[in-house]
Design brief:
Structural class of chain C: mainly alpha
Largest sheet of chain C: 2 strands, antiparallel
Largest interface: A-C, 115 and 128 residues
Strand content of chain A: under 5%
Order of helices and strands of chain C: HHEEHHHHHHHHHHHHHHHHH
Strand content of chain C: under 5%
Helix content of chain C: over 70%
Shape of chain C: globular
Structural class of chain A: mainly alpha
Oligomer: heterotrimer
Number of helices of chain C: 19
Number of strands of chain A: 4
Chains: A mainly alpha (909), B mainly alpha (130), C mainly alpha (497)
Radius of gyration of chain C: 21 Å
Helix content of chain A: over 70%
Largest sheet of chain A: 2 strands, antiparallel
Number of helices of chain A: 37
Shape of chain A: elongated
Number of strands of chain C: 2
Radius of gyration of chain A: 42 Å
Strand order of the largest sheet of chain A: 1-2
Strand order of the largest sheet of chain C: 1-2
Distance between the termini of chain C: 18 Å
Distance between the termini of chain A: 74 Å
């Protein structure tokens, strides 16, 4: 069975190539795929008819109990025969119908893809595999419906079908998952009906599964997509709406009927929804004037009837279901194909323009006649038997039965009227008005309708054939227990026969008074309004409007609004955290005494920042900010963190330099305009809130003595393990050197990034050669050179001694960078560049290489990355951490210079 | 001391947020610096104060009540990273001023929500500095 | 072994250094970059092979024992993330060879991509909270450089939003890392997990972790703090936005998964909150996408909604749900990056990325249409593609524990995803081009880009059809996550002095 699916999929893969090579003759070759499958299924008929089932299974996702399991029983076989048989005819038909279409190859591919999915769907025994194929039919039918993609109608219809069936599919998925979990089985054949009866999840499962089936089979209220899907080329309609797509839902209902069809609501829901669908479909069908749309709405009717029949769960009902399914697939396929042929031959499908076609298209006409008789349920066609059984089945159903039988009579009468429209109005009577002379279509186009129509006749007339070989085993698969099956054309004078006669009479009347009927129906304005597409459009529009409103709350393009939200959420989260654990805080733990220097630092830091927050002058701003940083440095010093303090100092210096360089070319702060007081108040509140939050979480973290022994360990191991007395530096270049590696990488990348960005503003290389000193004073310049030299020297000393005394790679590099900053400011960038000889970016690359190299040495020595290797030539401790520190020095030095040079150069441009 | 430091963190953060919410991009950049400083202080505070000596172990003797070296190392790292990011932000500020002709935050950021421009037919000038 | 452990960081870093040193020669830089990314992919695959055998690689950098030195740990999740990072990195640099006429193309692009890969891999393998912060910064600065690459007013505008919101997030992370140390006395994740298991994390530490999770949530673009993402991703050069779309938010998701599973392996209040956040993220993201009219904006909002799925897996906290989150991560990174790549190609051909100004691609470029359809359908969870299994597992996990709302939201989000994908399909592919067929362009030299897109689509199909082994791996990864003792044991056993 997998081979059948794969074979057709293979044909799909080759379709575009083949149709390019062979043009429209490719269809004959491609039809071999489904035909071979059809033959194979025919060969399985004896096995299945004898009560056996063919099984196949390949593991797929064992962890999820998903397998590619197939099982061919009566129901599957019936469907498989229809899918592959009608599929073969459709492929041939499509080749003729679309012979001059530009994208015929693509069409074949979609059609065969759909066929493979549909076949997989009806063969799958595994719930998940079935669902996979189910969704694939939705997708491939989307591609088919939107085949004429330049038309907006096609696109809309395809999307509608996709969303409705796809959405239903997801409900089905949930239903199947619950079903699998509840029954603890993931194969249809292993589902235990007893286990599910009265299960707590039973209602949820059937509702979800029913949504899936109803959307697929266009049951009320999901029926809209089906008539719209007529935007597809006729071969698609013929295939999708006769034997396949829309029957998938019905198939699944039938498949699950033995499991769900217990005493609970399942049957009632099916009968009620089915009856409503049948009625609405029939009424809508009569109103149409386009042949294809008439057929589409009659399909809706039939789907409703089929759903009703499954719901009856009576012997006759289920037999009627199977027979009717078969009969309908045959005649509806035939009629659709014939209508396509008419369209092809005459260029119209409008009833008003058609008539008398039998003279031009005798073969097609004959096929339509046979199919229409079956459609109308006249003896001895298969449709007749179906109708008889339907009535009997519904009457057996009980109290609701009579009512539904009434619905059935009415809808069948309307079907009969529709059949009349299709055959009598089109082929008989007076000559229609045609734009061009009609002609009989080519063989592949009349062959399909003819084969199917004759099939319907033969099955009806020789009804013990299908009974023995097909219907019996299918009915057994649909019913809960064994059922006795017997088909007949003549069962005596039964209520069913009376109903049948009534149907024919009503249908004939309907046809005769068709204009009257249509006219009356047109008056039900309210009805048309609720059942039309309007609801769909309105719903989509509502969704988009809602989505737009929602999105605009996040797409306002205002950084400040984004920021406000972020800060508020952060405050809320932190405060929630603090407050919810309020009981667990032990109060502030170890509080150390105030130190005057620290206090002064804090005051300076806050004061400076506050100044920066209110000042307008650019220079004052920079100065205030610098002061704030300075205060912080002072605090760090007071807190016995000399390295941090020096770093803070150096960084603050460079920050001020960079800021001053950038800001001097910008407008003064005042010009931007003032803000509304209300906004200002909100912002102030947000700022204060977050400030309180930050203070709160810091205090929260301090609510007990610092646990752990990390600090002590570092202090104890710094000298023996890391050969350094400056524990902070040893942590940076040895204990936690990986952090430092990442950090200098940040610096190097930031240098590159800032330089690239600043470079983008320059004219191409124009400024390169300019070079202008920033300091005009000769006196200043005189002092700069020795100062820079001194700073460079100091930086090297700082680097060297950093392992034992305050200093190290960072601090050293920042000092060295300051030296070059001075030089560049005093003598221009070109001189500084010349002094450096190599490009700063290269220096920072080299630094990274040193740092990584120092780490890799440890790796090569058999240890971990960054493991220190030490040698003591002459008692001097030399180790890879020192090389690492050199790397830090070079990287930071190069990156800072890279940014600075580029900044100065961009100023000159 | 810890409480004072925590309050300082709070004050600096509040000022920083105030700056971040300014309509002038220059102050937004400054806000990042101020908050960065505040959080560095917060990290150091988390390591507790009260030490009598810096974290040096000159003669192999661990001084009594030496400072906790780990937060210091972390803060040192964070300071340098913060500086790198600040310089990049500054470059963005400068380029923004040059290309937009304004530093009004919301006017600058609103442009990104405009509809996408059509792509030019011919390839653009191959850019990037040499 | 110890070399392999650091290789995810060292390979891109070494590539970056070589590129920096040989910066004057753009051809060499591009070649190095491609080679480096390919090597990273191989390293990732080797790690997946090792991790697949159940090995948790762990080591102490510098040879200093935990918690004093920094631990690196590679379990199944980390290995998978490294491998997928390699794949996306390779795809990006190869795609980046096609400059598409954007000034962002060039050697600096490769430098920053390697930088970004270093940072991303670093976050995936580190076992230390502060080290995680450092790697976040590395990838952040690289992403800043990349997003603004090529300059221009529009790009700067998006960069400003991206820059400052991310800076704020990262400062939040720094604060929480510092506070975490102050409250618990450790930065080592394994030790943190041990403390948590012993119930020894003080209240202040819990607050710090919660704050940290918020910082990750911003990175991961969860509701309601995702605003930075749709405000900025669409301005960058297309391979850059593809790289971001694939990897950046997922770093946040990874960090969330890592910390939450280590600190709270059992479901609790945090999971409850995350569950609601995840549902809202899915819904708001997907609805936001429905409102968009440009390809990359639609895709950007979908990143948000898809991140919701992954966090849902984390929030449900059952082994199956975690496996779903892992599966989703792997699937999503490939699919999302690919959609951005394809979006870039489509825009290049149609001359715009506004849907109204696009069209005609289905007739003109059927291959591109097929290549779009694969990841688009996968994103919407259509079987048998990778996204179906990811979604299936999460829905099943939700239903298994009776999280009806979550399951319903996950399914409804699927429908809307389909809606937006079909919107792109309808407008950019099916509809005729508003300027007529002649308005479509056929840029030359797109072959590498097409190769990338086709390869990623093939991965999507393979993950879908061969979901068995992937699901087994995800299950095993989830088992490691659900029980931190293996992780702790590996770090404990990593030695060091």
């Amino acid at each position: 069975m997998l081979n059948a699916v794969l074979g057709i999929a293979l044909a799909m893969a080759f379709a575009p190539v083949l149709s390019r090579l062979l043009d429209d003759r490719a269809g004959f070759l491609l039809a071999l795929g489904p035909f071979a499958a059809f033959v194979w299924f025919v060969l399985q008929v004896p096995v299945v008819a004898a009560g056996g089932a063919v099984m196949e299974s390949i593991a797929w996702v064992p962890a999820l109990d998903a397998a590619l399991a197939f099982r061919l029983d009566g129901l599957s076989l019936l469907f498989a025969l229809l899918v592959s048989g009608i599929g073969t005819l459709i492929v041939l038909y499509a080749g003729a119908y679309l012979s001059d279409h530009h994208h015929l190859g693509r069409f074949y591919a979609y059609l065969l893809g759909f066929m493979a999915s549909m076949l997989g769907l009806v063969l799958a025994d595994d719930l998940i595999a079935m669902f996979v194929f189910w969704e694939l039919t939705s997708i491939s039918s989307y591609l088919l419906i939107s085949f004429q993609h330049e038309k907006s109608d096609s696109r809309r219809a395809a999307l509608q079908a996709l969303l409705i069936t796809g959405g239903g599919g997801l409900a089905l998925l949930a239903g199947l998952i619950l079903l699998g979990a509840a029954a603890d089985a993931w194969q249809f054949s292993a589902l235990d009906a007893e286990a599910l009866d009265g299960h707590a999840l039973y209602p949820a499962i059937i509702v979800l599964v029913l949504i899936g089936c109803f959307t697929k089979s266009a049951q009320l209220p999901f029926h809209l997509w089906l008539p719209n899907a007529m935007a597809a080329p006729t071969p698609v309609s013929a295939y999708l709406h006769s034997a396949t797509m829309v029957k998938a839902g019905v198939y699944l209902l039938a498949r699950l009927n033995p499991v769900f069809g217990g005493p609970d609501g399942w049957g009632t829901i099916l009968v009620v929804v089915g009856a409503a669908t049948a009625l609405v479909g029939a009424v809508l069908a009569i109103r149409q004037t386009d042949l294809k749309r008439i057929l589409a709405y009659t399909t809706v009717t039939v789907l409703g009837q089929l759903t009703m029949l499954i719901g009856t769960n009576t012997t006759y009902g289920l037999q009627a279901f199977v027979i009717y399914l078969l009969a309908h697939s045959l005649y509806k396929g035939a009629l659709f194909m014939a209508v396509g042929a008419v369209d092809h031959a005459t260029g119209t499908r409008e009833l008003g323009r058609l008539g008398g076609l039998i003279r031009y298209m005798p073969l097609t006409g004959a096929a339509v006649a046979l199919a229409a008789f079956s459609n109308a349920g006249l003896p001895p066609f298969f449709g007749f038997i179906a109708k008889e059984f339907k009535y009997t089945g519904l009457i057996e159903f009980g109290p609701l039965g009579w009512l539904t039988a009434g619905v059935m009579v009415a809808t069948n009468a309307l079907l009969l009227t529709a059949a009349g429209l299709v055959f009598i109005r089109t082929f008989l009577g007076r000559q229609g008005r045609y734009l061009r002379e009609p002609h009989e279509v080519s063989m592949p186009m009349w062959l399909g309708p003819m084969v199917l129509a004759i099939g319907g006749f033969i099955l009806g007339a020789f009804n013990n054939l299908p009974e023995v070989w097909l219907v019996n085993s299918a009915v057994q698969a649909v019913s809960r227990g064994p059922v006795e099956v017997h088909l007949y054309l003549w069962g005596g004078i039964t209520p069913a026969l009376v109903a049948s006669a009534l149907t024919v009479a009503l249908g004939a009347l309907g046809y005769v008074y068709r204009y009257e009927v249509r006219h009356r129906l047109a008056r039900w304005r309210v009805f048309w309004r609720i059942s039309g597409d309007l609801i769909w459009d309105r719903m989509l529009k509502r969704i988009f409007v809602f989505a737009g409103t929602l999105a605009s709350n996040f797409q306002h393009g205002s950084l400040r609004r984004h920021m406000t939200l972020l800060v508020l959420v952060a405050s809320a989260t932190a405060l929630f955290g603090v407050l919810s654990m309020a009981g667990s805080f032990a109060g502030v733990g170890s509080v150390s005494p105030l130190s005057p220097a620290g206090l002064a630092g804090c005051v300076l830091a806050v004061g400076g920042a506050a100044g920066a927050a209110v000042m307008k002058g650019r220079l004052a701003l920079v100065a205030a900010l610098g002061l704030s940083g300075l205060g912080l440095a002072l605090f760090f010093l007071a807190a016995n963190a000399p390295d941090v303090a020096i770093t803070q100092l150096m960084v603050e210096t460079l920050t001020v330099v960079f800021l001053a360089l950038v800001l001097r070319r910008m407008p003064p702060m005042g010009v931007v305009g003032s803000r509304a007081p209300r906004v200002r108040r909100i912002h102030a509140a947000v700022a204060v809130l977050f400030g309180l939050t930050a203070a709160g979480v810091v205090i929260a973290a301090l609510s007990q003595p610092l646990p752990g022994d990390i600090a002590a360990w570092y202090l104890a191991n710094s000298l023996p393990g890391g050969h350094g007395a400056n524990v902070v530096n040893v942590i940076l270049v040895d204990f936690r050197a990986l952090d430092t590696l990442g950090e200098i990488l940040v610096v190097a990348l930031a240098g590159l990034a800032a330089a690239t960005l600043l470079g983008a503003g320059r004219g191409t290389g124009a400024a390169r050669h300019g070079g202008r000193a920033e300091f005009d004073s000769v006196f200043l310049r005189q002092g700069v050179k020795p100062l820079a030299g001194l700073l460079l020297l100091v930086s090297l000393v700082l680097l060297w001694r950093g392992h034992n005394l305050p200093g190290g790679g960072f601090i050293g590099s920042l000092v060295a960078a300051c030296a070059l900053v001075l030089l560049a400011l005093a003598f221009g960038v070109p001189l500084a560049r010349r002094l450096l000889r190599v490009s700063p970016a290269w220096v920072s690359g080299l630094g990274l290489a040193c740092a990584v190299g120092a780490g890799v040495i440890g790796l090569l020595g058999g240890g971990q990355f960054l493991t220190g290797g030490w040698a003591f030539p002459g008692g001097l401790p030399l180790g890879t951490p020192l090389l690492f520190d050199v790397g830090v020095f070079l990287t930071v030095f190069g990156a800072v210079l890279h940014m600075l040079f580029r900044l100065l150069e961009s100023e000159e441009a | 001391m810890e409480i004072v430091a925590a309050l300082t963190v709070g004050a600096l953060v509040a000022i920083g947020i105030w700056l971040l919410l300014d309509r002038n991009l220059v102050r937004v950049v400054l806000g990042v610096v101020v908050i960065g400083n505040a959080i560095n202080l917060g990290v150091l505070t988390a390591g507790r104060f009260g030490s009598r000596a810096a974290a040096f172990v000159a003669q192999g003797e661990v001084p009594l009540q030496a400072a906790n070296p780990l937060p210091q190392a972390l803060v040192l790292t964070a300071i340098v990273i913060g500086f790198a990011l600040f310089v990049f932000a500054l470059a963005v500020l400068k380029r923004t001023w040059e290309t937009h002709g304004t530093t009004e935050t919301d006017r600058v950021t609103a442009l990104a929500e405009e509809p996408a421009p059509d792509l030019p037919e011919t390839p653009l000038r191959p850019g990037g500095p040499a | 072994m110890s070399g392999l452990l650091v290789a995810p960081v060292l390979v891109p870093l070494a590539t970056l250094i070589l590129c920096m040193l040989l910066r004057r020669n753009p051809g060499v830089v591009a070649a190095l970059s491609v080679a480096g990314a390919a090597l990273l992919t191989l390293v990732g695959l080797r790690l997946v092979g090792l991790a697949g055998e159940g090995v948790i690689l762990a080591g102490q950098m510098g040879g200093w024992q935990a918690p004093y030195g920094i631990s690196l740990v590679i379990d199944r999740l980390s290995a998978a993330m490294v491998a997928i990072t390699g794949v996306i990195g390779l795809a990006t640099v190869v795609y980046g060879l096609v400059r598409e006429g954007d000034p962002a193309g060039g050697r600096d692009f490769h430098l920053f991509v390697q930088g970004l890969l270093t940072g991303v891999c670093g976050t995936f393998i580190t076992g230390d909270v502060f080290n995680l912060y450092v790697w976040f910064e590395v990838l952040l600065i690289a992403s800043f450089a990349l997003i603004v690459l090529g300059d221009g007013a529009r790009r700067l505008s998006g960069t400003v939003v991206y820059l400052f919101l991310n800076l704020l997030a990262t400062l939040l992370f720094l604060l929480s890392a510092g506070l975490l140390y102050g409250a618990t006395g450790t930065l080592n994740m394994a030790e943190l997990a041990q403390l948590s298991a012993a119930g020894e994390i003080p209240a202040g530490g819990t607050v710090a972790v919660v704050l940290m999770l918020l910082a990750f949530s911003i990175k991961a673009a969860l509701f309601p703090v995702f605003g930075w993402l749709p405000a900025s991703y669409h301005v960058a050069w297309s391979p850059v936005s593809a790289l971001f779309a694939g990897l950046l938010t997922k770093v946040g998701v990874y960090a969330l998964i890592r910390i939450v599973t280590l600190v709270w392996p059992q479901a609790g209040v945090v999971h409850e909150v995350l569950l609601w956040v995840a549902c809202l993220t899915m819904l708001v993201g997907v609805l936001g996408a429905a409102a968009q009219t440009e390809v990359r904006r639609i895709l950007s909002f979908h990143i948000v909604s898809q991140v919701g799925y992954m966090v849902l897996g984390l929030a449900l906290a059952t082994p199956l749900a975690l496996a779903g989150a892992v599966f989703y991560l792997i699937h999503h990174i490939v699919v999302k990056a690919n959609l951005f790549f394809i979006g870039g190609l489509a825009a290049r051909m149609a001359g715009s990325e506004r849907l109204a100004a696009m069209g005609g691609l289905y007739a003109r470029a059927p291959w591109l249409a097929i290549l779009f359809a694969i990841p688009a359908l996968s994103l919407a969870g259509i079987p048998p593609l990778s996204g179906f299994w990811a979604k299936f597992v999460l829905v099943k996990a939700s239903l298994d524990i009776g999280a009806w709302v979550a399951a319903a939201v996950a399914l409804v989000t699927g429908v809307f995803t389909l809606l937006s994908m079909s919107k792109i399909w309808n407008e950019a592919f099916l509809k005729a081009h508003p300027g007529g067929a002649a308005a479509l362009r056929e840029p030359a030299g797109l072959r590498p880009a097409f190769a990338v897109v086709a390869a990623l689509a093939a991965i999507t199909v393979l993950i879908g059809l061969g979901a068995g082994p992937v699901m087994d791996y995800a299950n095993a990864a989830a088992a490691q996550l659900a029980d931190p003792s293996g992780y702790i044991g590996a770090v404990r056993g990593a030695g060091g002095q």
